[in-house]
């Protein structure tokens, strides 16, 4: 399918750019490039093959045949979309064959500091597409059709769309040499360190971005221009690397945004049928982002076609639909997937009283096939009452010509308040399961984290429930009961329990380091001292590999404890524990 990938065996990634491996800063070829992107693909239309993978950069990057096929089909809008000109959208595919190489330390460092909702994809590739279709009499079909695709594990949709808008038009005019230069420029970028503001030069432009951190406040989403006084040209400042214009994405479904929020919270299967891959991918991404800061733990496909290798898995009627949000543009898929419990069909944008025409809530029994009208087809009844005041404020703002950023901030604030009001009681209850710090003794096994009892939690809501922070009324108890059965509760609970276990390990290590080791060793046998040395070494390894929340001075004390303990042992044991 792609001559370049077939023709060359795997070798050092030195093909692009004129620099030698010795002249590059990182020891591993293309290490800086790989911190941002997995590869760059060019997909073209071949009269005999259909969509074909023309180029892959770096040329030695390994994609399986199944991954190549998925990238090819998902990089072109299907025939029902009728996209002329330039179109941008995104997709997500499952990585085949498992993780093919160990993740570098920089990747783990990024994940430890990034918000959980923005961590790298572990088992999927994200594809960001710039597709061009224009009339061209020199081509047999009469059209020039080509896509430039950035493949990454980072969910930085705004950054990669901005990057594509800069490099794709250049590439379509100048082809391969331009792409080689761009890849070499990206290979000079600094690593994406959470909390840092970075200047990223490419094709004569400097993109200035802030990499989100767990320490950021949820509402602090904008980036003001900074640190560019000596930069020529002045940087192009991106206010966010990942956030979408939620108001624009949700305009046709504003009346049902809370119902959709509940469906996302509960991990319900949802089929989104949109008029184009752009609308499809933006709606799916907006839906998955409306739970922030909660991590979206279900599968999602911003753009999906019947050619995808997983189509049969999603279309089977022998079992319940999987927990996935599926974005499609082919209306034939409504017939194939009409057994799905929730289907959202979005029509072409039509204004009605200053607001795009709102889709209606409809029963699935009214679902037809090709002539299905726009609507949210579901039997689901929302647990919470609709916030009519929010819709009124958004509509009033739109009629008065308020900036889109202002309306997006209002909508995002509402969704953030909803999610936080729901999650805070869970966090409060979970914190109460943590053993008290005073119960962590240096020379005893640390106490266990108590189990999460759902009934106890539900009883606690009377005093600590979401009614304390959210004005919305409704069946919050019923919503929590359904949430306990969802992948999002499992994902949230596993993450929080892992963090608490790491905190408990850190507290135990601190307790040992603050204790008087010489007094402890006075009445201890050599076996017990050796056992302490081995356990302290194991704790140091875990503290570094799991990045436990311990200070450097605590680690230094642990090393001193190890030296003191070894120094108290006979020479033969010292030689065993500290071989030359």
From TrEMBL:
Domain annotation UDENN: ranges: 38-494
Short name of one Pfam family: DENN
Question: What InterPro entries does the entry give?
Answer: cDENN_dom, DENND6, Tripartite_DENN
| A GO term for molecular function | guanyl-nucleotide exchange factor activity
- Sorted UniProt keywords: Guanine-nucleotide releasing factor
* Annotated transmembrane regions: none
Which GO cellular component does the record give, naming just one?
A: recycling endosome
Does the keyword section mention Ligase?
A: no
At the top level, the lineage of the source is: Eukaryota
Family, similarity comment: Belongs to the DENND6 family.
In Swiss-Prot or TrEMBL terms, this protein is called Protein DENND6B isoform X6
Give me the gene this protein comes from.
DENND6B
């Amino acid at each position: 399918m792609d001559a370049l990938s077939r023709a060359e065996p795997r070798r050092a990634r030195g093909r692009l750019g004129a620099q030698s491996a010795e002249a590059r800063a990182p020891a591993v070829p293309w290490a800086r490039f790989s911190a941002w992107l997995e590869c760059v693909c060019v997909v073209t239309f071949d009269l005999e093959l259909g969509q074909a993978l023309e180029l892959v950069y770096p040329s030695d990057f390994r994609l399986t045949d199944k991954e190549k096929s998925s990238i090819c089909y998902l990089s072109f809008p299907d025939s029902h979309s009728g996209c002329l000109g330039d179109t941008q959208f995104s997709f997500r595919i499952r990585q085949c064959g498992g993780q093919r190489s160990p993740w570098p330390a920089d990747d783990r460092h990024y994940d430890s500091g990034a918000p959980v909702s923005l961590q790298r994809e572990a088992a999927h590739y994200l594809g960001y597409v710039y597709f061009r279709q224009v009339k061209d009499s020199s081509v047999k079909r009469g059209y020039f059709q080509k896509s430039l695709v950035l493949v990454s594990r980072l969910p930085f949709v705004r950054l990669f769309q901005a990057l594509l808008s800069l490099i794709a038009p250049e590439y379509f005019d100048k082809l391969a040499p331009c792409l080689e230069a761009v890849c070499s420029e990206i290979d000079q970028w600094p690593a994406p360190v959470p909390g840092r503001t970075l200047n990223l030069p490419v094709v004569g432009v400097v993109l200035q971005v802030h990499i989100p951190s767990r320490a950021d406040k949820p509402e602090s989403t904008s980036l003001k221009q900074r640190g560019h006084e000596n930069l020529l040209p002045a940087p192009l400042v991106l206010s966010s690397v990942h956030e979408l214009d939620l108001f624009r994405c949700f305009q046709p479904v504003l009346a049902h945004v809370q119902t959709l929020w509940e469906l996302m919270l509960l991990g319900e299967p949802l089929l989104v049928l949109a008029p184009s891959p752009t609308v499809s991918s933006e709606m799916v991404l907006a839906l998955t982002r409306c739970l922030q800061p909660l991590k979206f733990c279900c599968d999602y496909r911003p753009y999906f076609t019947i050619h995808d290798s997983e189509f049969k898995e999603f279309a089977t009627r022998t079992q319940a639909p999987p927990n996935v949000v599926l974005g499609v543009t082919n209306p034939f898929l409504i017939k194939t997937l009409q057994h799905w419990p929730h289907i959202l069909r979005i029509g072409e944008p039509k204004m009605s009283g200053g607001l795009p025409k709102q889709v209606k809530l409809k029963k699935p029994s009214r679902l037809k096939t090709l002539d299905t009208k726009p609507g949210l087809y579901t039997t689901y009844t929302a647990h919470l009452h609709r916030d009519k005041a929010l819709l009124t404020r958004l509509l009033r703002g739109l009629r008065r010509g308020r900036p889109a950023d202002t309306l997006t901030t209002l909508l995002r604030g509402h969704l953030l308040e909803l999610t936080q009001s729901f999650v805070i009681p869970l966090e409060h209850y979970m914190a109460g399961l943590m053993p008290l710090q005073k119960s962590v003794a240096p020379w005893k096994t640390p106490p266990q984290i108590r189990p999460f009892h759902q009934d106890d939690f539900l009883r606690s809501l009377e005093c600590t429930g979401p009614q304390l922070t959210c004005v919305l009324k409704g069946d919050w108890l019923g919503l929590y009961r359904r949430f306990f059965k969802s992948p999002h509760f499992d994902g949230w609970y596993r993450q929080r329990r892992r963090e608490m276990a790491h905190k408990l390990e850190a507290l135990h290590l601190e307790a040992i380091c603050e204790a008087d080791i010489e007094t402890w060793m006075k009445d201890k046998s050599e076996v017990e001292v050796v056992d302490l040395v081995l356990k302290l070494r194991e704790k140091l390894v875990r503290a570094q590999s799991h990045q436990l929340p311990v200070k450097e001075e605590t680690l230094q004390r642990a090393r001193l404890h190890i030296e003191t303990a070894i120094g108290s042992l006979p020479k033969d044991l010292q030689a065993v524990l500290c071989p030359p």
